[in-house]
Design brief:
This protein has 116 residues and is mostly beta strands. 0% of the residues lie in helices and 46% in strands. It has one domain (25-113). The chain has strands at 25-32, 38-47, 52-61, 76-79, 83-89, 94-100, 107-113. The two termini are 25 Å apart.
């Protein structure tokens, strides 16, 4: 949700101020780049029969809430990990992702770039 200074929803973002994402995507961190792009990190849960699995994802959006289709596959990149704990934007515009490997306590660091 993007809000105006007075607390009302900003209709220039996602049509009504609120971006609704799929029910299987869960996000733990967000950052905004210098040019206003949004980067969300978390995991996607995939239902299997029986049970489920999950994998870490990073999603990128333009300032108006539309997916950045040049990032990853149609705006979503996956990381070979179970979950993402932290995003960090470097001075040169790279996004660093801290994540946890599946069912271990080992950590990974992955770096992404946004198309300019």
């Amino acid at each position: 949700m993007l809000l105006n200074e007075d607390g009302s929803s900003d209709p220039s973002f996602a049509g009504n101020g609120t971006l609704i994402l799929g029910p299987f995507d869960h996000f733990s961190d967000i950052l905004v780049t210098a040019d206003g792009k949004l980067c969300l990190a978390g995991h996607r849960q995939v239902n299997l029969n029986p049970g489920y699995t999950q994998y870490a994802i990073v999603r990128a959006f333009h300032p108006d809430g539309t997916p950045d289709l040049r990032f990853g596959s149609l705006g979503t990149a996956s990381v070979d990990a179970q979950s993402i704990s932290r995003l960090h934007l470097t001075n040169n515009g790279l996004v660093s992702v801290g994540s946890r490997l599946t069912f271990t306590w080992q950590m990974t660091l992955t770096r992404f770039t946004f198309a300019r």
